[in-house]
Amino acid sequence: MQQSLCRNCQTERRAIEAKGLCRCCNQIARKIGQIEKWNPKDKRTLKGFPRHFILGHASRMKADVLEQLNARLDQLRIWEQRLREPIDSMMLESKFSHIAKLAGAKTPRLLHGTAICFDSFTPAQRKTIFELLNSIEEDIPCRVEIDWSRYLRRDLDAR
Fold first, then answer.
1. Is residue 95's pLDDT more than 70?
2. Which residues contact 110 (CB under 8 A, 6 or more apart)?
3. Residue 121: which pLDDT band, with cuts at 50, 70 and 90?
4. What's the sign of the alpha-carbon dihedral 96, 97, 98, 101?
5. Is the backbone of residue 11 left (phi > 0), alpha (psi -120 to 50) or beta?
6. Residue 82: CB partners within 8 Å, gap ≥ 6?
7. How far apart (Å, rounded) are the C-alpha atoms in residues 26 and 8?
8. In whole angstroms, what separates CA 129 from the centre of its chain?
9. Residue 99 dihedral angles phi and psi, to the nearest 5°
10. Which residue among 49, 92, 136, 142 has its CA within the 20 to 30 Å range from the CA of 101?
């Protein structure tokens, strides 16, 4: 029997690619698998390791990058859950803000306070707008973004 839901995000909107995961979740899971194999003592395992970083930092970087990727999988799960819930005005404001950020808007809070504009919309209208925005967002080519040096900033902040 063909599985219709992604094992991670539970979407049925995207085809299942491998290991019961949709395209988005599978891309991240493959990256996690690659990084889990990193061994600083064996340079052949360091596929995808940034060349400009010190190998002595590999274990700390590995832990932080895995944390970021797992958080991304969690985020995909949350986004899919939102598509199954009633959509409120704040969710629409957040979605518009996210699309503006993806489009390169320079003002971080460009759409702050716009939720009130959607209060008079029916739940069906809000859901339709949210789904349309979600379709735009999903059609924007994106890569799995990793902040390779985040662990260094965390070390500095802890001091």
1. yes
2. 97, 100
3. very high
4. positive
5. beta
6. 91, 130
7. 9
8. 21
9. -65, -40
10. 49
The pair of structure tokens assigned to 55 is 């190998």
Q: How big is the chain, counted in residues?
A: 159
Q: Is the pLDDT of residue 97 over 90?
A: yes
Instruction: Give CA–CA dist 114/72, Å, rounded.
Output: 27
Residue 53: what residue type? F
Read off φ and ψ for residue 19, nearest 5 degrees. 55, 30
Name the residue with higher pLDDT: 74 or 52.
74
| pLDDT digit string, tens, across residues 65-93 | 999 999 999 999 998 998 999 999 999 99
Which residues on adjacent β-strands are paired with residue 21?
18
Residue 151 region by backbone torsions, left for phi larger than 0, else alpha for psi between -120 and 50, else beta: alpha
Task: Quickly tell me which residue has 């890569």 as its tokens.
Answer: 143
State in Å, rounded, how far the first CA of the chain is from the last one.
54
Residue 129 contacts residue 86 (beta carbons within 8 Å): no
| Sequence-ordered alpha helix ranges (H) in 7-148 | 23-36, 58-84, 89-102, 123-139
State the amino acid at position 13 in one-letter form: R
